Amino acid sequence: MAIVDIGSNSVRLVAYERLSRSPTPIFNEKVLCGLGKGVATTGLLGTEAMDRALGALRAFKVLCRNLGVADMRVLATAAARDARNGPAFLEAATAALGADIELIGGTREAELSALGVSSGFHGADGVVGDMGGGSLELIDVRGHALGRGVSLPLGGLALLDASRGSPKRAAKLARDALMKAPPIRGIEGRTFFAVGGTWRALAKLHMRARGYPLNVMHGYAIPAADALALGALAERSDGDDLGGLATVAAARRPLLAYGAAVLEEIVRLGRPREVVISAMGVREGSLFERLDAAARAEDPLFAAVREINVQHARHAGHGPELCTWTDHLYSAAGLPETSDDTRLRHAACLLADIAWRAHPDHRGDHALSAIANGTFSGVDHAGRAFLALSVTYRHGGGEGDAQAGLRALLTPQRLERARLLGAALRVAYQLSAAMGGVLPRTALRCSKTRITLALPGDLADLASERCVGRLRQLAKLIGRDAEVKVA
């Protein structure tokens, strides 16, 4: 299946493997056409922009045919709905793509964007802002419950036109419009979820400035004070001089100052606790609303890691057994956990065999990269670091200089838990050889001074020197001695 998004700044095709709670993109193509440029002042879509967009849509039609796409949904947003020649363009676009196009209004666009955020964050709570080329949509989100969305003419291209190229005037226009927007009054002390390519580009600048160890945009958190400083930097700089943004398309760079101006006014007026980047918006929301209620209620992280476990583990049943086996260990050892701690531990268990096809000397690095940079959602960056390091520790790595940045994302307590979980996984894999049905026949029992590995008689020979050595490493981390008992 595929989604085509005809936006004011870009035209994009994303093809997905299938409709699911954790959809996997198999192809992603974007063309920056700038359809919204000039609409605010002329009321018309530009001829060159329309030609570029129609060419992109004709290419998308062929790509979808080659991909075997049987289900295509096409959405058009602000530029096409606001321009006087929008209907004529949509007629030509329908012919170019060979598919019907849904022209969505501003309120509907806000709802879809919020559904996208809701689908990509576990228990999202805050206000979603989706800044495109032609408009800014704002809407409150609490889990899967949405407020009433509003649409404002504060897209990057629209502001560029309306302000006559002045970011300072753009900030004034943004401030005047935002002061009247009801969702702004509900942000204080909560999260502002930022959707849109211009804000993602600004986040890249912030990442580079702080030497951030991950290159994952989804879930990247910017403290409110930093968002204000980032805006000032962008407003002072010419788009071509913003260092660190070589990866940002040249057509987008002039819009960064306008994106920063809007973000700064949102932070000043709304006073959110933080700004969190969402890579999921209208497209993902349009998929999410097609799921049934049971699928929508699933935890997005677990929907993803369960699928990864089935696709990549040597035995699909082993990961769930690891969850139960470590449940018993943590309970017996009296290791307290919050619900989020347990959630992350279980996710790590389901990801623990992700690197088995790599060379043994490189499995830790492979696991670290696959998990730290994975496309799954529903986890913040500290949680992502915990998952990556836990599985890296399971392979005997994790303490090198290359992992120092990830370790710095964790509190000392959570870092110790990652080491402990990795040590427990090392014992488990030594016993089970990654096969199902073995761990349920073993047990780890704890007293105040000792951790005991209990084995049935037919598994007694598994208590090898290596197994006992790993058990001792685990015991050391929880302050106990180690022993093996055979029933």
TrEMBL record:
Query: Which parts of the sequence belong to the Exopolyphosphatase C-terminal domain?
Result: 302-483
State the name under which the record lists this protein: Ppx/GppA family phosphatase
Source taxonomy: Bacteria, Pseudomonadati, Pseudomonadota, Alphaproteobacteria, Hyphomicrobiales
Q: Which PANTHER family match?
A: EXOPOLYPHOSPHATASE, RETROGRADE REGULATION PROTEIN 2
User: Which positions are tagged coiled coil?
Assistant: none
Known InterPro entries for this protein?
Answer: ATPase_NBD, GppA/Ppx_hydrolase, Ppx_C, Ppx_GppA_N
Q: Which GO terms describe its molecular function?
A: pyrophosphatase activity
The record lists the organism as Lichenibacterium minor
Which domain of life does this protein belong to? Answer: Bacteria
Location of the Ppx/GppA phosphatase N-terminal domain: 21-292
